[in-house]
Amino acid sequence: MMFTRRHFTTGLAMSLGFGTSATVSAADTPLKLRELYKRDGSFSALALQLEGQRVTVSGYMAPPLKAQSKFFVLTKMPMSVCPFCETEAEWPDNILTVYTKRTVKVIPYTVGIKTTGVLELGAKTDPNTGFLSLIRLAGATYG
């Protein structure tokens, strides 16, 4: 049997754990916002499965609603203004509220970021701002 480059790379990949059924933590591979919603705007099966777990989501930080805030909105595309500030019925299916433990340090809206926190689903109103969220990361870090 002739040993080819394909045999070498396949063997190398298998020895490194690629192509095996090794499990990966939900926080290891960044999710995209679209993976959390179905086409009709409801939560995806993946979002329901990951509820209560620590996950990482990639996107862009929308400008915070107010200074000294402890949350921001993660969007799938850069947005220079608040993406909504509307009622529950009008909740966009491409955003995620991110609650942090500390005051948010604003990152330019054109810079992609990754944020990691515990995924929470369901309507929740922030007591300080009246801000309504349907899906959010709690205790999150970002950068």
From TrEMBL:
Keywords: Signal. Residues 1-26 form the signal peptide. This is DUF3299 domain-containing protein.
